[in-house]
Prior knowledge:
- The protein has helices spanning 3-12, 21-29, 84-88, 112-115, 119-150; strands at 32-36, 41-43, 51-57, 60-66, 69-76, 81-82, 98-101, 105-111.
- With 174 residues, it is α+β, with helices and mostly antiparallel strands.
- The protein has one domain (3-149): Jelly Rolls, CATH 2.60.120.
- The strands form 2 sheets. A 4-stranded antiparallel beta sheet has the order 1-8-3-6. Strands 2-7-4-5 form a 4-stranded antiparallel beta sheet, with no helix packed on it.
- Strand 4 (60-66) and strand 5 form a beta hairpin.
- Helix 1 (3-12) packs across helix 2 (21-29).
- The chain is globular.
- Mean pLDDT is 86; it is low at 166-170.
- It is found in: Membrane.
Amino acid sequence: xxxxxxxxxxxxxxxxxxxxxxxxxxxxxxxxxxxxxxxxxxxxxxxxxxxxxxxxxxxxxxxxxxxxxxxxxxxxxxxxxxxxxxxxxxxxxxxxxxxxxxxxxxxxxxxxxxxxxxxxxxxxxxxxxxxxxxxxxxxxxxxxxxxxxxxxxxxxxxxxxxxxxxxxxxxxxx
Length: 174
């Protein structure tokens, strides 16, 4: 993929909101292109790592293990990013989820050490990562609250597009 094409894609990526053309150029100089075949593991839950990826083409699945099963959290495509938490958390924290390419996928990868070389750009990137993580935390909190309100037997994600039931008020006559 040509740099001009990559820069156009990055300009549309939410995590680069507020970046100018020079900022994106600086960011691009610190990245490494990576490709993954369908079915390839990009990283696994618990693995150490301090890199974030931006998907240029293809699709990945984010999943976690629970009770010996893989639980799919989300599928991501071009213009979306993953691994942001590894840039924020302590280096020994380990990945919080696994990422698998579900089709041939190309990414731009940037690591923690490379961001130090572009402080102005990294400051804006960290602000945007904070917004992204805060949004994810809000969604997670809403899902937990919804599940508690409606019993643990219903998958929160299975009910996201359905209206919430109205509260039933019982009238008691004396």
